[in-house]
Amino acid sequence: MFEALPQKSLAILESKIRSEIQTSGAEVHVVIDLDNDEASQQRHCQEIQARCLDTWFEISFKATTSKKTSIPYKVKAPQIILDDMPLAEFRKQQNSLAGHGAKSVISHLLLKAGAEAEIQGTALDLINQLRQWVRSHRIPAATQEGSVVIVPETIVSSELTLRSIVTLEEGRWINSEVINNYLVTHALNTGASCGHFPDPLPGVQSRVFYADTTFLPYVVVGKRKWRHNLFDYDFIVIPCHVNANHYVALVANVATFHLESWDSLGNSQDYLRQIMIGWLDNEMSNRQHHGGRQETSTWTTRAAACPLQDNGDDCGVFTLLAATYSHLGVADAYCQGDVAVVRKQLVALAVAMGNLFREGRAWAPFLRMED
Hints:
Layout: E1 2-5, H1 10-24, E2 30-32, H2 39-60, H3 78-81, H4 87-94, H5 102-112, H6 123-136, E3 139-143, E4 146-150, E5 154-157, E6 160-161, H7 162-165, H8 176-188, E7 193-194, E8 208-210, H9 215-220, E9 235-242, E10 246-253, E11 258-262, H10 270-289, E12 300-303, H11 315-325, H12 339-357
Parallel strand pairs: 1-2, 7-8, 8-9, 11-12
Antiparallel strand pairs: 3-4, 5-6, 9-10, 10-11
Helix pairs in contact: 1-2, 5-12, 6-12, 8-11
């Protein structure tokens, strides 16, 4: 335990505390003695405490041996998940949700999973219930290094960890894992395409491709040729992590050669759009050079008049919402008032989707109303 820490050298102290946690594996209680009570300093110290707790949580609940987890994490066979249908046929059936944004799709999936009664309280309430449930289902296991606790490292897939779900708490930036994982779920349930299943469905009204947050740095900025055909899609939606502290969405309307940036802080993102335009032009030239569709149109671009956030924490949620509403022609389908509900629904959805994909008994961490 470290107590009565002075405010000075907080970064060094934080590093020492987290190192102590990682070395000992013990829970470390942090009490910071402030020189004054300015709100900004109070928040800064609370953030340090939260990060130290996250470090302890990750160390304590992460499987550290090659042995099987105490709650088996084994993915169901694709035939079971897809009801014995080919993926393309399954996506066609799910295409009934096409034309809906994130709020509608999330609500539909929770109703389908029977989880609507579990959305009580805030995102933090659900996260705390999830933590408690995981703690109560841990099983100690003997190893050469001593006794460790083994639980599943993930809930839904290797791409959505417990540590990522914790970022859905109000007042925190959600991370890229949450955005990427949800957009794959959204694509699967609207008949859209993504990196996991890029082939557009024949006969759909609007062919949408959802990229992930690695697309901008590794494909666009890296000036890599895309392995898919730009002209197979009507819209390409790209969530972007910019300046290491903000999320925005880029939406390329391939049919009209128009690019928009959706920034919930109201920034124009001119430079980002110009980078994207350069990549789009290069893709068009490559396709024409190799005998593809001949196009001579010039791309137009603008910053979209999209809903704005009223704080510095919710850009990731706004980007997720923008990604699913932007191509529908409805710029006012969501607002700041939706964010808290979306955050807690995404926590519940992570567990519901985990139960859908994972073998073994279902996780039931959330208190129902009758409880």
